[in-house]
Amino acid sequence: ADAKTAAAGSASTASTKATEAAGSAVSASQSKSAAEAAAIRAKNSAKRAEDIASAVALEDADTTRKGIVQLSSATNSTSETLAATPKAVKVVMDETNRKAHWTVRH
Predict the structure, then answer these.
(1) Residue 65 in domain
(2) Could you tell me the superkingdom of the organism this chain comes from (predicted)?
(3) Bridge partners (DSSP) listed for residue 71
(4) Per-block average pLDDT, block size 10, for the chain (106 residues)?
(5) Domain count of the chain?
(6) Is 91 exposed, middle or buried (0-12, 13-18, 19+ CB in 10 A)?
(7) Do 51 and 75 lie in a common domain?
(8) Which of 25, 51, 56, 92 is the 20 to 30 Å CA partner of 9?
(9) What is the end-to-end Cα distance of the chain in Å, rounded?
């Protein structure tokens, strides 16, 4: 009787563990499916972003056309394809104010 009871207990424990393992397998499968779906969505979003970026023409700007400009802090340039930085404007304004102040005093 003791052997039968022990065997029944072991069978019950094994059955419980098998049920738990099956539940874990189902959860893992669901997690894998969710991760795969998220990866597909991310890939599709990246593709859409690449398509949009390639459709937008980024051209250099000039005096007649909007576009991309390069900044420059030069204060002696005659370029019409570079844009002055606030630093360059400040240098010129400081020099202008200094000369104007000197002219008024002398």
Answers:
(1) no
(2) Bacteria
(3) 83
(4) 79 86 87 93 94 84 89 95 95 93 70
(5) 2
(6) middle
(7) no
(8) 25
(9) 122
